[in-house]
Amino acid sequence: MSQQQYDVLIIGSGLAGLTVALHLAADKRVAVLSKKALLDGSSNWAQGGIAAVLDSQDSHDKHVADTQIAGAGLCDPQATRHIVEQGPSAIDWLIQLGVPFTPDREAELGFHLTREGGHSQRRIIHAADETGHRVQLTLEQQVRAHHNITLLEYHSGVELITSRILEPQPAGAASEPARCLGAYVYDEASDQVQTILARYVVLATGGAGKVYLHTSNPDTSTGDGIAMAWRAGCRVANMEFMQFHPTCMYHPQAKSFLISEAVRGEGGVLRLPKAAGAQAGERFMQWHDERLELAPRDVVARAIDFEIKKRGLTHVDLDISHRPAEFIRTHFPTIHARCLEFGIDMTRDPIPVVPAMHFTCGGVVIDLNGRTDIPGLYAVGETAYTGLHGANRLASNSLLECLVVGRNAAHDIDAQTSQAAPVDGQVRDWDDSRARDGSEAVLVTHAWDEVRRLMSNYVGIVRTQKRLGRARERIHLLAQEIEAYYQEYRVTSDLLECRNLIQVAALVVAAASSRKESRGLHYCQDFPWTLPRALPTVMTPEEGFR
User: pTM for the full model?
Assistant: First the structure.
């Protein structure tokens, strides 16, 4: 099978990946892999907006402080300061590309700024309540029209290719740093694994929301980049901090549709539902935090979880019906329309909500230029760990990080001395000549379902060491079963995703088990205190699960 060669291979097509591509494509041949269609990733689902200092009443110091408070003392100071300070120029780039942010004639920059939980100021620039979609549509047009960008939709990363496969090190020899040379890639249309070589590879595959049963993420969020980087030898950090969004619609057909943080930012309040009996309709956040509905996401999610479990409820209510109907329809057109599909008129009725897994705060360890531990390999966006999010991501900092670190990575790649990609013949093609077509796909389906239920029941919002231990034992067995299946049968999309999900689940459990405190998104009943010194959980492939 012929091998493809590019200057840069980007695995993932969300905001971070497309940002890298568009900053490099002027003089480099770039390939962008999208596991499904280009707009099927998490970035396209982002509703709220992008946090940046865009008003004279605000400041970088305030944004940094809000980020650090939400992150429970675990945010990296240098990364936080850098990303926050680069925010305005990143927004300028999007404006120049033509992103249709919501206008406001009275605002300094002419765009409406909203406020979300954990923010002390209005600093969220947005495009109504579908910011991610509008940003992605704009970038998609640029990417599809660029002559130097090859878009490979319905292609999934299988494994990274490093220089170790060219010259295996003899036993006992000093190990030379492996360089990333490309990746083996599964083409869904041809049902074949292709070899794609590149001088630089960028992992931009998003997070791992599907590791839990209930998530606001799309089906593509299976932790592929994190798992691939770990298997190649990269460190990962802070995998215990899995952020649950407090307010996802509770409805059998809604599939955890996200109700944006901005609904609470614009006055939405949380109330007990009818099932609470005499206390139905009563507001409850005052019992949990003085910041009420604008407390950070981990605080609000735990409060909702507490009330649901204490009272035997299925959900709580989010109510913004006290605001003018026209205001609601104007500011939240997508949410309003979606609610109407399920018979809920949010201008008059409360929205039933529950917490659902939303964002992976940890990931592949990188520097501020996106460099991983392996030369030639970069990671950006939710796949990566910069230290910005600490123990709990501040609302709308995620798209900001995608823009800033994506641009940094592109500039760093652009500045590198050109190193020729391997010539044909040096890298072996994927060999599945002895693999069989899968005859027991039910094993994959069962493992996929079991790992997500395990994580939801044992490694959710509130944890115990006993639950973590049970999860660890079963995930270890699942990993062995799926790895044996992977070695024997030809790959499929479901198999690749299941294998990666189990790998990420193992990393989450290992990290959570090692943290002997409660901090931010990690709350353990056995260790309810917070230690005086905040330290990240950094793991190498020689530790924990492989």
Answer: 0.90
